[in-house]
Amino acid sequence: METHLRDASSVRSRQASHLRSIFGGSLGNLVEWYDWYVYSAFTLYFAPVFFPSDDSTAQLLNAAAIFAVGFLMRPLGAWVMGIYADRHGRKAGLTVSVALMGGGSLLVAIIPAYASIGAWAPFLLLVARLLQGLSVGGEYGASATYLSEMAQRNHRGFFSSFQYVTLIAGQLLAVCVLLVLQSALSVPALENWGWRIPFAIGGVLAVSVFFLRRGLQETPDFQEEIAGGRHPASSGLELMRHHPRQVGVVIGLTAGGTLAFYAYSTYMQKFLVNSAGFGRETATGIMAAALFVFMLLQPAAGWLSDRVGRRPLLIGFGVAGMFCTVPIFTALETVTTSFQAFLLVLGALVIVTGYTAINAVVKAELFPTNIRALGVALPYAIANALFGGSAEYVALSFKKYGYENGFYWYISAMIALSLIVYLSMSETRGSTTGKGSMLHGPSNPATQADAIS
């Protein structure tokens, strides 16, 4: 009886430890994404500081270009940090990534204006975003792998969805900071110096998270890999030589999803101001409310995927996104009330939930432990750089040349291409025995063919 009680207590202790690790990893993810999204949230205020011009669209284009360049660094960050996390552990990768992010945020906070140092101002802004691009490139793979490996098999969809809960929470926190500063400071104050405050906050939070992540527990999958004498030999060559189809699947399933996510979330705030005619404060409020509901939907969708599978949710997003994107954006052009705009924005975000809530675990389920962080991070970062990071720039370019609705059709077309991948790929969730998923550690006989046959 005593032995049974001790065993039960030990199980509960391990479960509690895993939950604390998931919470700790998620909290760090929130701070990283807050730092990343603050740039987008405050672009309307700091763009004139770094890019003097009489044309507001031109200023936004220049700022969006640097936003996109940050995304171009993500594949490099994914490659370097993914290999690092595969060889030295998920915890080590998470710790390094948050240090890079914090450094980038603090740099943005102290860069002098163009009027003071000329072209050095946008150059230093670019350097800061390059550092953050390296960070986010590694963060996605490390955190997706960490959360997926720490979760129990029957709850992986639910727990891995917290990656996007914290991603959205970071974005929402950036928006909330914007709302507070908009109410506390005048527009001239925000444009002159107030926009620096959120970057300083992000840098300080990143320092705190650095120490938090150093105390995280390593995942059982990685521990088993090392204990079994199978030291990971992760590399880009290894990934492409042995897992080319999985790489193609990740790029294909990400392309439409990441474009839709950035179009419906980060670019949408500019769209509400620049195209729908709302004031900056009103647009910020609409996005804050819609993103909050969107955040709450992620665990529900993750839980559903644990019961019905990953493919039905991905296919649902593909079909709805392909047919509804153009009508939603077109309706937003002529919407007359903020509540109507909120409902339309929320409708778009509900659609993309079928992708956001589960994309991390789907990718993690495609790769074995020894190369999982790199396999998740690198192809995702490539697709993200090509389609997600360029979303604002492409949208503003369409607008500049007088064909704004071309962007709506572009989103629909990319979602349709991803839908083809969703329809052709096999279910990755796996059975209770693990068949169909590579997320089982080295002792499980699952094979690459089981994951995507």
Strand content: under 5%
SSE order: HHHHHHHHHHHHHHHHHHHHHHH
Rounded to an integer in angstroms, the radius of gyration calculated over CA atoms is 22 Å
Helix content: over 70%
At the fold tier of CATH, the topology name is: Growth Hormone, Chain: A
| Oligomeric nature of the chains | single chain
Mean pLDDT, rounded to whole units? 83
Total beta strand runs: 0
> What is the H level of CATH, i.e. the homologous superfamily?
MFS general substrate transporter like domains
Spans where pLDDT lies below 50 across 5 or more residues: 441-453
Largest sheet: none
Number of domains: 1
User: What is the straight-line distance between the termini?
Assistant: 47 Å
Structural class of the helix and strand makeup?
A: mainly alpha
Q: What overall geometry do the principal axes of the alpha carbons give?
A: globular
The CATH architecture category equals Up-down Bundle
Specify the CATH class. Answer: Mainly Alpha
Number of helices: 23
